[in-house]
Design a protein that fits this description.
Layout (H helix, E strand, L loop, with lengths): L12 E2 L3 E10 L2 E8 L5 E7 L1 H4 L2 H14 L10 E7 L2 E7 L3 E3 H6 L6 H20 L12 E4 L4 E3 L2 H12 L19 H4 L5 H15 L8 H8 L17 H7 L10 H11 L24 H10 L9 H26 L7 E3 L8 H10 L3 E7 L9 E5 L5 E3 L3 E7 L5 E2 L8 H10 L3 E8 L9 E6 L2 E2 L5 E2 L4 E7 L5 E2 L8 H10 L3 E2 L4 E3 L9 E4 L6 E2 L4 E2 L1 E4 L5 E2 L8 H10 L3 E6 L7 E3 L5 E2 L4 E5 L5
Parallel strand pairs: 11-14, 16-20, 22-26, 23-27, 29-32
Antiparallel strand pairs: 1-2, 2-3, 3-4, 4-6, 5-6, 7-8, 8-9, 10-13, 12-14, 15-19, 17-18, 17-20, 21-25, 24-27, 28-31, 30-32
Length: 621
Amino acid sequence: MELGQTNQWVGRVLDDRYRLLSYNVHGRGWNEYHARDLNTNDLVSIKILTASISEDVEFLRRLTSDIATANSIIHPHVQRVLDWGRSAEIVYLVTETFQGASLQVLLDRGHSLTVAQATRLGFEIASGLTALHQLGLCHGDISPSNLLIGTDGSSKLAGFFLANAFSAAEAGRLSVVGTGLIEPSVKFAAPETLSGNGGPESDVYSLVATLVAAISEETGESDKTRRKLSNGERDQDLKIPAEFDRATKILSEAGRFEASLRCDAVSLTEGLVDATKGFTKPANISIPEDLLIGPDSAPAAYSAERHRSNGSLRPKWRPARKLGATVALVFALLSAGTAWAVSSVRPQGLRAHLVQQYTGRTVGEVRAIADSRSWVLDEDQVRTDDLPAGIVLAQRPAPGRRLAEGEMLVVEVASGPRLRMTPLVLGLSTAAAVARLETKGFEVDLVQPLYDEEIVAGEVIKVLIDGEPALGGGLREPGARAVLVVSGGPVPRTVPQLIGLDLGNAEQVLNDLQLRIARPLGREPSETVTEGTVVGQGLTPGLLIDRGSEVSLTVSSGPDLQEVPDMRGLTVFDAERRLAEVGLQLGEIRGDGLEVQGTEPAAGTFLPPGTSVLLWAPLQD
């Protein structure tokens, strides 16, 4: 679908649920329609995205994530996101409907705001921004186009669920040429956004830039300005007009060039609320009827005529004009009467038949009746959980009317149960994902583990339906069977052969496999193995173990050396026996004394078993 082809969608029903009533407005990468939710009978807004962006993988991935978060945002100044889906190879989004106009439309028509109105608009939208930022979302494209002003004086922040997805799509392309997107304005972008960086503080800056533009008569964006800003040539704080009075200080803080010096959305909201204490309560922003968007908006010509007929500038009718108007009025009434008379007369020979109650009957019965009475039967297929397929849900015209042969009978026919939206389960535990899928009417056929070094074991990393990856948000038949691909945790490690390696090399081998040495180490003396060499390991080589497991090692402590005992004061006989106890031998005895005064080597020296030790036993006086 191309964005210019808007009429082809009016009257269609998307996914047997949303009937498009009329075209509304065009935006960046989408067309918006007024629609009715056939399940709830509520009026909603439908954004149909361009075909080129609907097929973008990065766009859908980011959109799915942001909408899952956006569904939980219920704030009076944030446009509610209700649903999204695919139909005829395009992606559509469902939001709450809103009776009003965008700030950009008002400014383009020369309707600038008073300082008090801009301040009020500022703290309302800033409070909505706070709700977004607290959930980790950034708007990314705050400008007058995304600020909606209601006929009742309310305001809404729109489009926050699209800007980040568009950015994700564009990040993977050389340019936006061929994507079907309109290049976003840079007039309201924060300095860091122009260089490819942005965050919550960028939204705050853009909101202040929008408020400044809202009270200025010069809201357009010249080619010179666009070139300058697109090259990142913005090197100073925003200039806040003195008319803002008490709000000037907080707006200046929010409009700082350095992002780290700006206040956040919470502080901006509080600061603007405090500033309003110095203002008289502003009147609601007036929206001309010909600028309204929304399902109940009057046609532009009608609104313009009403506008011209009110107020002090109403022209006074002169007699000649009054006569001409009277003639024109009579002619119009005659023409209308003639048209009605012609249209009310049926062609000769065509009979009319009474329309009966067809709801609750099978469509086969109604087809037979329509054929027997030569009516044209138009069947609209509608999904519902209340009735089996093939049962008529509604009809037009109502029972009691008469239809001539050749006229149309319209029926809505149950085509089966409602499609179920695939829930977003990526990142959930296996049990939580299965429970959520089954609650939505899906069946889990298989849980398939897949080793992953990063994702926690048991966490869902992919959902397959009919063999294809299924992103959350897609509409499918109830009872669709899903396969969950879950993380099996890290790949098991194979225990290496460590015997014969020195302790340092053994530890490096285990570290490379993300395994660890169990402490304390075992020690074993050896006459043949060098000290520090691994002589034993607790786990058999080739065994599969979990990443991070411990392996116990035994290392050689070298030969089994014996310590020379301190034998001073012992008799020579006792010293010989003590040496024998520790595995050493008595060597030469020097001196004729009976008590040992020292040894060679000295006490505390380690010697191999069987080594001879000399005793000093000098004769004492």
